[in-house]
């Protein structure tokens, strides 16, 4: 049966709140480094419901950071870029949804497509954090680095750690429960 719009939105809100709960687990090192394990629910939801739904769920997840006082806000434009635009872009993982679902229905584990989806969603999200890092966080640059190099080190490291952790957990979850990515 085709899912109703309301069910798709409700699942997206649930995924965003799971992600937000994970964002409260402190995995920060210093001012810039952090592993964002909240990517896990929003990425699984994006594999289940696709690109546009994934964008919406990621957007809500980012908005929750602001509403719940979990955001590092320097200026209005920085908050918009890092907490609405960047988080929404996690939904780019959903561009692989139909390929992933087709393979799961054949009884396969679509590890390569999930890896590519995680790379896309995490990569595009952290490109925005990199850009914001250069524009807004340059004053915190240390180790004698220029703002560009500093932002690349911080956000490149965060993207790699976040992408690796997300991929491993999503792979294990989908292996155990393939129905997570098959919408009912
Ligand atoms: C160089 C630098 N430092 C800090 C930030 C802020 N930043 C980075 C990554 C992720 C997030 C969202 C919350 O986890 C934020 C606010 C930056 N962009 N660049």
TrEMBL record:
Membrane spanning residue stretches: 20-44, 51-74, 80-98, 110-128, 148-174
Pfam families, sorted: Thia_YuaJ (PF09515)
Domain of life, per lineage: Bacteria
Keyword terms of this UniProt record: Membrane, Transmembrane, Transmembrane helix
InterPro entries, per database record: Thia_Transptr_ThiT
Keyword Transmembrane: yes
UniProt entry tagged with the keyword Membrane: yes
Protein name (database record): Energy-coupled thiamine transporter ThiT
Organism, as annotated: Candidatus Vagococcus giribetii
